[in-house]
Structures are given as structure tokens and as C-alpha cells.
Design a protein that fits this description.
The complex is a heterodimer.
Chain A (H helix, E strand, L loop, with lengths): L4 E12 L2 E12 L3 E5 L6 H9 L6 E6 L2 E2 L5 H6 L2 E4 L11 H9 L5 H6 L4 H13 L15 H14 L4 E5 L7 H14 L4 E5 L3 H7 L2 E6 L2 E6 L1 H6 L1 H8 L2 H5 L1
Parallel strand pairs in A: 3-8, 3-9, 6-7, 7-8
Antiparallel strand pairs in A: 1-2, 1-4, 4-5, 9-10
Helix pairs in contact in A: 3-5, 3-6, 5-6, 7-8
Chain B lengths: L1 H25 L2 H26 L7 H18 L8 H4 L15 H25 L5 H19 L2 H4 L5 E2 L4 E2 L2 E2 L3 H27 L1 H11 L1 H6 L4 H27 L1 E2 L6 H14 L4 H21 L4 H15 L3 H7 L2 H20 L4 H20 L6 H10 L1
Helix pairs in contact in B: 2-8, 2-11, 2-12, 2-13, 3-5, 3-11, 5-11, 8-11, 12-13, 12-14, 12-15, 16-17, 16-18, 17-18
The chains are: A alpha/beta, B mainly alpha.
């Protein structure tokens, strides 16, 4: 059985004042896939996420999610159809407690009237409990998120992403600033999410990407340079050239 | 500990309620008016706190909604206490009532107009501004500009609304009672106190639900709220509308006790002062907003009657002081164990003070000894200042 594509980018181009951040980018993701995206600085990784989540409008091209176009939709609408995003540096609500941060993420589909008049239901509270367990912050649930350590903030944001129950999770540098042990745990968590969720991970950390055991897409200058398993990528001369400079240069 | 706090809080509330009930019987009407006005301003401060303290929308134009509420009640009173046209129209040779005065003959219409007109205007202004993602300092400047538009609009319209002179209320009648009469003023005082309490409870209820958390989230990181699937425009518009409604109610209650509504309340200093009340009291704490408005305003009245013109300087100084020393405001400072920290700081300072101690006059010595003893009991419970036990003991032995 051929799995349907969950996300498709067709010929997407984005330019910032003459600089082509994305240059006719074509990427498609199958349902349940885990995909790592790597690339040197300025390759367009973050712009790629910005285009999907509605932060940046592409100058040209089409973004299809479940067959529907996402172009021109507002950020919160895109989030509601099931695209969740974790930002590069952890973006959490610092003046709210850990619990309240999660409460916001699990309540996204609740109507505004209920948000004004009701507290979170038991069901939602259980969800929050579960998420707290996943990220090991049950004991600090009443702590202000601003006073968490960097690693805890990263995990809190991942938990907030889980709380949204998105069908597509876009994870930007989830292990930046984490210890080796935390990195391993994060990799395992993301791996366990794939299958039921579709996950896109962007990172620089090669060890971490290798641990994901997923397909890797290499971006360079706003285009896909190559795609495939880690082993194939590592031996691709084009990738080596991009990452290490031209081989001739090395020989000299 | 919690129980103790609760008890202390209950006592404070009981004292405040008692004071409010007996106040009209123990102070003169002119003093009562000052108190009543200060209470009325607590209501507009609640709105400023909701929009600025909680949601981060620094509006410098709340005077618009405040003044609209004031004019609504003043127009009603003027129309219903004179046979034919209100008196001032004859000064400008106006023979027929301007069309927008007409509906204010109705008590029902006025009852709704006081809060609904400011509310609708806040809704429209808020929606357009927030939808276009105007925020931060641009929002503040825009509200300030809107304020000046209204100021110029009303100030220059002698023939329509008595322009710069404003509309006086003391000689008008409300349901047959003279507004300036002491008995009526007592009634206004109680009404103001009750409406302030209701507004406070309403705001408290509003922020206690998930809604309140989302407001704070918008203040912290609006874009993140968007990516979490919420539309901040909806939330910001709602809260700005609520703030507008509260300002309207506040303006109406203020006007009947201030004897006059005039374009002077549309001048920037007044709207900026509202922000100062909240900053002094403690933004993000509703009770801080109410107390800030009440005490700063009361203080302002006292200063203005003693040294006219001095208040603006004090107000500026107060703002600088709060921003630099107490960025959380007084209530925020109390909530974050400020007094305890201060005592500990003092006792640490006293450590260096030891040498000069003997030269001090006796009462000061006793006061310092008392403070040191106090801080010693505090520091025993404190984990963050382990060294203090030692420092404190030495001081006591003096």
C-alpha cells in the first residue's frame, strides 16, 4: 500500500530583499515518517519551517497539507489543522508555571467561551499529568517556566508540542544545549513519536541525527542537495563539498 | 502560614468595608467627594491593569473611554434638569438641540450608553489595530494620537457640547434629586464602592480562568501563542473592550462626584497617570491597581490643595522611582517577599555600621536593635541567606 503524502512543497521560492532563502524547493513527507533535515547555515532550514507554519509567505510555489493548500492561512489556523512547531531557542511562556504552559497547549481546540468561563476539564488535567511525566517535570509543575534550566525549557516546549496533538510536528534544533544523556533521551522520544505522528527534525548535531535512524534531507542554498539514509549522505561528494569545502582545497 | 495570611486578609477586608460604610458619616461632603472620585478611578485602573498589566497592551488613551462615559451621564443630567435646552446653549445662540443629544433624554439609553459606547469604540479601535498587528510602542502612540483627536474634537465644539468649558453637574437633577446635594453625594459614594467591588470581582474571575493565562502568554510571547493555535487578535480585542467598558463606568461615576466633565480629562497627562497608578500599585495584580489608583489619587488631591502645581513633579518622580526601584509595584514587591528581603538587607548593612553605632541617638539605636531582632527571626527561616544568623547575633549583643 502506498502511504499518502501528508506534506508536499512544490517549487517553493522565498526571497528576502533579493536573497533567495528557498529556491524552487520540492519536499514531500509521507504520513508517519520521521525525517531529519540538515544543511549548513543559511541553507533555508528555518525558512522552510516558516513557510509551512505561515510565518513567511512564499513568493512562488505551493504548500499542501493533507491535500489542502496552506498558503495564505493565518498561523493559528495552520496550528489548528495539525501543524505543531518547536522553535530553535525554546519559546515558552516564562511568567506562567510549567503546568499552565501545558494547559495552554492542550486547550487549543477549546472554544473561546469555555476558555473564558471554565477551568480545564479533568480529561485535560490528566493529559497535562501525562505530559509532565513524559518530560519528568511533575515535581516542578508549579514552578514558573522562566526559572527552569535550558534543558528543561527545551523539553517543556517539546511537551507543549505534544499537547497540541499535531499530525505534523516540526522540531527545530531540539537538542541544542542539552547534555549527551538528554540528547539520547530526546532522540528516543522523537523516534517513538514517528509512526503515529509525522515528525520533521532540524539539527546540526550529526550524532543526534544518526541516532534518529531516519531518512535525511540535505538542504543547501534553498534547494534539496540530496536525500537518503545517513550512510549514503555521509559518502555523497556533494554533501562533503558543502560541509567541508571543496576537496581540491583540502588536498592543497 | 496560609491560614494566618487568610486571617490577616480577612481583617484587612473587614476594616476596609467598615471604613467605607462609616465614611459618609464622619467626613465632610467635600472630603467624601475626593474619596469617592478616588474609588471611581480604581475602576478605570482595573481596566488598565487587565490590558497593560496582564496582556501587555500599553494604552495611553484610556481617557477617551473615561470621558465618553462622563459625557454620557452629564448630557443625560443636563437634558433632564432643564426646561427646553440646557442653559449653556443660549450663550452660543443655539436654538435647536444637536441631533446626538436627543437619545440621552432616555434613562434606559443613557444607562447603556455609559458603558456600551466606550465599549463599542474600544472594540472597533482594538480590532482594527490588533488585526493589523500593530503592537508595542506603536500601539501606545496610536492610542495617544486618538486621545488628542478626541480632545481637539470636543474642545473646539462650543455649540455642540460646550467645548472647553465642559458640562457641569451639581445643579442638575437625577430622578428628581439634586446631584450636588450631600445626601445624593453619599449615595454616589456607596454606588461607586459597590461598583468598584463588582468590577474587581469580575476582573478577578476573568483572570482566574484559562483566559487569564492566555493573556499573560500573549504578553510573554504573542507569536508563540499564534503557533499554539490561538488567535491573539480575539483575546486582545476582548480585553481592550472590557477595559473600555470599565473606563466608561469609571468616568460616569467620577463625573457626578467631580461636578464637571470637560476635555481636560482627554489630555495626555491624565491617561498617563492611569498607567502610573497601576505601575505604583503593581501591574498584573488587580488589587494593586485599585490601591494604586486610590492612594496616588488621594495623595494627589492632598498635595494639590497644599501646593498647587507641585503634583506633576511628584507624579513624575513617583514614576521614575517605581520603574527603577520597584518595577513590580508595591503589591508585586510584597508578593515577592520584598519586605523580608529589605529587612535582611538592612541587617547586612548594619554589619558595616557597627563602628558608628555608638554615636547614634538612643531612639535610633533602639529602632535598629528592633530591626535586627526582626531580621534575625526572619533569617532563621531563610535558606538564601545562611550567613545571616551570625551577623544578626553579633548585632544583638551590642
Amino acid at each position: 500500500m502506498i502511504k499518502k503524502n501528508l506534506l508536499e512543497l512544490k517549487n517553493v521560492s522565498v526571497s528576502f530583499e533579493g536573497f533567495l532563502a528557498l529556491n524552487k524547493l520540492n519536499i514531500s513527507l509521507k504520513k508517519g515518517e520521521l525525517r531529519a533535515i540538515i544543511g549548513p547555515n543559511g541553507a533555508g532550514k528555518t525558512t522552510f519551517l516558516d513557510v509551512i507554519t505561515g510565518k513567511v509567505k512564499p513568493n512562488f510555489g505551493e504548500v499542501l497539507f493533507n491535500g489542502n493548500s496552506l498558503i495564505g492561512k493565518k498561523e493559528h489556523k495552520i496550528a489548528r489543522v495539525g501543524v505543531g512547531r518547536k522553535f530553535q531557542s525554546p519559546r515558552i511562556f516564562e511568567n506562567l508555571t510549567v503546568e499552565e504552559n501545558l494547559e495552554i497547549s492542550v486547550s487549543q481546540s477549546v472554544s473561546i467561551l469555555k476558555i473564558i468561563t471554565n477551568q480545564a476539564t479533568k480529561e485535560k488535567k490528566q493529559e497535562i499529568e501525562k505530559l509532565l511525566n513524559v518530560i519528568n517535570l511533575t515535581n516542578s509543575s508549579k514552578t514558573k517556566a522562566g526559572s527552569l534550566s535550558h534543558g528543561q525549557k527545551q523539553w517543556l516546549e517539546i511537551a507543549m508540542l505534544l499537547g497540541q496533538k499535531p499530525s505534523l510536528m516540526l522540531v527545530d534544533e531540539p537538542v541544542a544545549g542539552l547534555t549527551d544523556e538528554e540528547t539520547e533521551l530526546t532522540a528516543d522520544l522523537l523516534k517513538s513519536l514517528a509512526g503515529t505522528n509525522t515528525v520533521v527534525v532540524i539539527d546540526h548535531d550529526m550524532e543526534f541525527i544518526r541516532r534518529l535512524e531516519s531518512d535525511v534531507t540535505v538542504l543547501n542554498q534553498g534547494k534539496v542537495l540530496c536525500e537518503g539514509k545517513m550512510e549514503k549522505i555521509q559518502n555523497d561528494p556533494k554533501v562533503i563539498e558543502v560541509y567541508l569545502g571543496k576537496q581540491e582545497d583540502i588536498r592543497k | 502560614m496560609n491560614l494566618k495570611n487568610l486571617k490577616a486578609k480577612n481583617y484587612i477586608w473587614a476594616i476596609i468595608s467598615f471604613l467605607i460604610i462609616i465614611m459618609p458619616f464622619i467626613v465632610s461632603v467635600s472630603r467624601l467627594k475626593i474619596l469617592g472620585k478616588s474609588l471611581a478611578l480604581g475602576i478605570v485602573a482595573l481596566g488598565v491593569d487587565l490590558s497593560w498589566g496582564y496582556t501587555g497592551l500599553l494604552s495611553l488613551g484610556q481617557g477617551i473611554f473615561f470621558t465618553l462615559g462622563g459625557y454620557a451621564i452629564a448630557m443625560y443630567l443636563q437634558l433632564n434638569s432643564s426646561i427646553g435646552l440646557p442653559n449653556f446653549f443660549s450663550l452660543y445662540d443655539v436654538k435647536s438641540l444637536p441631533f446626538f443629544w436627543e437619545p440621552f433624554r432616555s434613562t434606559y439609553f443613557t444607562f447603556f450608553a455609559i458603558w456600551l459606547i466606550p465599549g463599542l469604540l474600544a472594540f472597533l479601535l482594538g480590532y482594527l489595530v490588533f488585526r493589523n498587528r500593530i503592537k508595542g510602542v506603536y500601539f501606545s502612540i496610536l492610542t495617544q494620537a486618538a486621545l488628542l483627536v478626541f480632545y481637539n474634537g470636543i474642545n473646539s465644539q462650543q455649540k455642540l457640547i460646550n467645548g472647553t468649558n465642559g458640562l457641569p453637574t451639581p445643579n442638575t437633577k437625577l430622578f428628581g434629586y439634586l446631584v450636588g446635594d450631600p445626601t445624593t453625594q453619599k449615595f454616589f459614594f456607596y454606588i461607586t464602592a459597590i461598583l468598584l467591588l463588582l468590577s474587581y470581582l469580575f476582573c478577578k474571575w476573568l483572570v482566574s480562568k484559562r483566559f487569564g493565562r492566555i493573556l499573560i502568554a500573549i504578553r510573554d510571547d504573542e507569536a508563540r501563542v499564534r503557533f499554539s493555535g490561538y488567535n491573539p487578535v480575539v483575546y486582545k480585542t476582548i480585553i481592550f473592550t472590557v477595559a473600555g467598558i470599565l473606563a466608561g463606568i469609571s468616568g460616569a461615576l467620577f463625573t457626578v462626584q467631580a461636578d464637571l466633565i470637560s476635555p481636560q480629562y482627554l489630555l495626555p497627562p491624565f491617561s498617563i497617570e492611569m498607567v502610573i497608578w497601576v505601575a505604583v500599585g503593581g501591574r498584573g495584580t488587580l488589587i494593586g491597581a485599585v490601591f494604586g489608583a486610590f492612594f496616588v489619587r488621594l495623595f494627589a488631591s492632598l498635595v494639590s490643595s497644599a501646593v498647587p502645581g507641585a503634583w506633576l513633579f511628584i507624579q513624575g518622580g513617583l514614576f521614575i522611582l517605581v520603574v527603577t526601584v520597584l518595577p513590580q509595584g508595591i503589591v508585586g514587591w510584597m508578593n515577592e517577599n520584598g519586605p523580608k528581603t529589605l529587612l535582611i538587607d538592612i541587617s547586612l548593612k548594619l554589619d558595616n555600621f557597627e563602628k558608628n553605632f555608638k554615636l547614634l541617638p538612643l531612639p535610633l539605636k533602639n529602632l535598629i536593635k528592633f530591626l535586627v531582632k526582626k531580621s534575625l527571626t526572619f533569617s532563621k527561616k531563610s535558606i538564601t541567606y545562611p550567613k545571616l544568623d551570625h551577623a544578626g547575633k553579633e548585632e544583638v549583643e551590642l
